[in-house]
Amino acid sequence: MVTRAEREHFQAMFRKLDVDGDGVIEQVDIDQLVQEMLQSSGAGYPGTPTWRRVVGLGNRLWQELLATADENADRKVTAREFVAAYRRPEFLDQVAIPFELSLLDVADTDNDGRISRAEWLTWQQAKGVGQNEALEEFQQVDADGDGYLTRDECVRHIKQTYSS
Fold it and tell me: What is the DSSP letter of 89?
């Protein structure tokens, strides 16, 4: 059974993916989300390796949502279907984490394999997150307090975010 806190958490995640706000996630929502984030960040122009990787993972996210969540095969994912898919650990490990990490790779503009506070703030702004909220989240993710986010820190944070 889903607790109230879990339901609110998953509904917030659902709303981020339901870009047009029509109450269902469709491929156009995922496509629009990916394109808006790539464009807003200034990273990953059409045809570049970064663009192809992120778009490919966005397509994989959509295909996995269809395969694992679209119970009535109407090519739409409702909030209830979404929660059921995201609660499965294999979905998190095989789809959600790689997708989120690919988006973080786009934020690593100097390609040093880690995300600086400035890169994080730029990326979060592209996603529509306010500066204060982004700074708070950065501090939560930066487990060792060195001012940079590693892939391991990001994976732990993603797992915690999706499973908390």
Answer: H
Domain boundaries, the chain: 4-163
Quick: pLDDT tens for 114-145.
999 998 988 787 777 889 999 999 999 999 99
- Region of poorest pLDDT, from 15-24, 88-97, 153-162: 88-97
The pLDDT tens digits for 100-117 are 787 777 788 888 989 999
The correct answer on CATH 3.40.50.720 for the domain covering 4-163 is no
Any alpha helices (H) in the chain, and if so which ranges? Answer: 4-17, 27-41, 49-69, 79-86, 89-91, 97-107, 117-126, 131-141, 151-163
Angle at which helices 27-41 and 97-107 cross, to 10°: 20
Amino acid found at 103: L
